[in-house]
Amino acid sequence: MKSSYVRFAALNLIGLLLSGLLFTWIARDGALDFRLAQLFFDPVTHGFPLRISGPLDFWGHTMLKLFTVWILVIAAVVLVVSNWVDALKPWRRALFLFVLMAGCAAFVVQTLKGVSVHSCPWDINTFGGTAQWFPLFGPIGAMSGSGLCWPGGHASGGFAVMAGYFALRDSKPKLARAILWFSLGIGAVMSLVQMARGAHFLSHNLWSMWLVWATCFVIDALMRIILPPARVAR
């Protein structure tokens, strides 16, 4: 591997380790998560008023989710079409990596969310629900509730777009960085929407971002061995 990639990989490993420790520390007692959730909680009605907000649910939840899904669908379609369109052939490897990494990242997050024992804020007794909160890596509470709320699935759609950064980092560095910032921005917006609705804590979304980045990084490293850029037909 080139020395530039070795440096990139080392920085990623260090960054993932340090951010993982930071996110674990943030979720150790739920203090920050609860403090932010309280900003959107109404103690009078014992609920999150924006949970049933039509515009926020439609534009912030449904439409943003569809937007990120269509990015992946369009990329997959263009990848297939690139087999017959010469102008798209130079983009074939990047498109393939984007679809692969984004799809796998979303799958990882949704799989973990599907077996999670951690409940959403609106299900926790502090916020009008019945479930008991407990630390991410702590003993499961006797009243853990329905679970299925860690990591943040909605935000993962926005963060998954960062697969484009890994796919284009070598060939189109400026475009790759623009995609990275776009992904982080839309992921942050989707995270805020779910926090405002009482659907997720901050730490849920931070771990979603971490898992997406880690998945993309691992796949990118493996594909550099299996399918290096120099061996891709143009």
Automatic annotation (TrEMBL):
CDD domains: PAP2_like_6 (cd03396). Residues 95-219 form the Phosphatidic acid phosphatase type 2/haloperoxidase domain. The keyword Translocase does not apply. Keywords: Membrane, Transmembrane, Transmembrane helix. InterPro entries: PAP2/HPO (IPR000326), PAP2/HPO_sf (IPR036938). Pfam families: PAP2 (PF01569). The chain crosses the membrane at residues 7-27, 58-82, 94-112, 150-168, 175-195, 207-227. This is Phosphatase PAP2 family protein.
